[in-house]
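User: My instructor asked us to take a sequence, write out its structure as tokens, and then describe one feature of it. I'm not sure where to start. Here is the sequence I was given:
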Amino acid sequence: MWIADGWKDYEVLDTSSGEKLERWGNYLLVRPDPQVIWGTPRRHRGWREKNGHYHRSSKGGGEWEFFHLPEEWSISYTLSSVPEHPLSFRLKPFSFKHTGLFPEQAVNWEWFSRLIRQTRRPADRPLKVLNLFAYTGGATLAAAAAGAAVTHVDASKGMVNWARENALASHLAEAPIRWLVDDCTKFAEREIRRGNQYDGIIMDPPSYGRGPKGEIWKIEESIWPFLQLIPQLLSRDALFFLINSYTTGLQPSVLSYMINVVIAKSMGGRVQAGEIGLPVTESGLILPCGASGRWVSSRAAE
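Assistant: Let's start with the prediction itself. The structure tokens for your sequence are:
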């Protein structure tokens, strides 16, 4: 398992009976987590002194209950390979329990930012990275801070605006980042027709989603045809590819199999896949948070 253990401003304090107690900077939140099927005594005082609690509804969805929580606040993360450039993220609770950040992804930020940092390129030809389903820009900022030129694509205008605000807060407003509101499949198909290619590709697809014009995305049906586009988007001397999955049906071995068939079979390199997780302070154990599949070129420095 790959563990995101580099956080100072974020912490999973405890887990119990379908919920997790988290510290986001100075504030404590209780949110649902369907993988937490175990129970604990809930001795941590944060269960009683929480600032926000998302209550799941038996009919689907749910709603927040707040206790002295600001509408918005920020936390930061420092990449081990780019310690001189900490990243800053604006947080705000919004629909379906989210806060605008998936902290477990920091373990992937660390992986590809190190690859980017270690790869020598002329100053006028930085590595080109494509971030698909890019959400609020955590991976975009990590790649940009490491020196890449990033194309950030998400179907939600609100998420792209949020990502731009995170870039401004992280002093990356002037970094070479293209911000695009677009359906990721249609964008990828157009880039192939244009002959545009990238040295690294990151994709964090949702289990279900809609494009800006109502395009339907269901990961079990859409991911395989989408992945078949990837080799045409990777440059001849591409460095890496990363895919994340929060869908329980897409186990690490499934991600590994698909990447081997689609990318490694023709481009060589090495494929790895595994669960990603976050340490839990109270128990000392690791909370599983999904899976990632990684491909790295045989020419890459690691």
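For the description part of your assignment, you could build on this observation: The chain has seven helices and 17 strands. Try explaining in your own words what that tells you about the chain.
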